[in-house]
Amino acid sequence: MVHNALAMEPTRILLVDDDAAFCDQASAYLAQHGCSVLALTDPFGLPGALEAFRPQLVLLDQRLGTVSGTEVLKKLRDGGNTPCIIITGCSDPFDRIVNLELGADDEVEKSIAPRELIARIRGVLRRSGPAGEAPSGSSAQPDATQRAVSAAGRSGWHFDTGRRMLLRPDGSNCGLTTAEYETFRVLHDAMGQTVARAELSLRVFQRPWRANDRGVDTVIKKLRHKIEPDSADPQCIKTVRQIGYVFVGFPP
């Protein structure tokens, strides 16, 4: 019996890569580990695939022939918050920052060991919440016993961990990506205490932090744009020089 490394039920993964051979190999391996994979070699089929297949995670190639994976990622984020892992032929720090700024949840090299790919997928799925939960903007309400709603420090702001949402005073959803949600959750839980970049990197990305790693800083920048009155003069998430960040609550 094949051991299911991801879940008891098939995990729906949409693989977008113009390399048909890679799609075949990756699909076969993922299928052995409990995934139902839909492979697209043509990115123009993405909108229809998202609607029909309703993937729980998207694996997206950085280079798609004449189409940039960055452009596809923008369209993916415009349409929702489906978790996305970028597949790249080489690790470029600039590309990684751009991808994170656009809402990618992780980035892996195409030469990644299959077992590590499974681990990365598991990590993103774990951070993104249980399969089948109500998407952002859905009218579906979880059972009261499953919701953990906490005030984020300012009247009207609510951090709803049951639906994985940060709600503004007017009730609108901030639309946090998986990485942004997990980063805010860690900072919120430690309100008033400094959280080191190294801890955030381990808890959000499951990787050790290095001095040239801008992943955490990039997510913080995006998070500030969504919750700060003025992201250039942050009052909610403060930088602790050479250490990390601290969430001090929303201003009165």
Automatic annotation (TrEMBL):
Domain OmpR/PhoB-type: 146-249
Gene3D superfamilies according to UniProt: 3.40.50.2300, 6.10.250.690, Winged helix-like DNA-binding domain superfamily/Winged helix DNA-binding domain
CDD domains given in the database record: trans_reg_C (cd00383)
PROSITE patterns xref list: OMPR_PHOB, RESPONSE_REGULATORY
A single BP term in Gene Ontology: regulation of DNA-templated transcription
Phosphoprotein keyword on record: yes
Positions where 4-aspartylphosphate occurs in the chain: 61
Protein source organism: Falsiroseomonas stagni DSM 19981
MF (Gene Ontology): phosphorelay response regulator activity; transcription cis-regulatory region binding
SMART domains: REC, Trans_reg_C
Region named Disordered: 128-153
Classification via InterPro entries: CheY-like_superfamily, OmpR/PhoB-type_DNA-bd, Sig_transdc_resp-reg_C-effctor, Sig_transdc_resp-reg_receiver, WalR-like, WH-like_DNA-bd_sf
Protein name stated in the entry: Two-component system, OmpR family, response regulator
Record key words, sorted: DNA-binding, Phosphoprotein, Transcription, Transcription regulation, Two-component regulatory system
Domain Response regulatory, residue spans: 12-125
Ranges of biased composition (kind: Low complexity): 128-142
Positions of the DNA-binding region: 146-249
CC annotations in GO: cytosol; protein-DNA complex
Pfam families noted in UniProt: Response_reg, Trans_reg_C
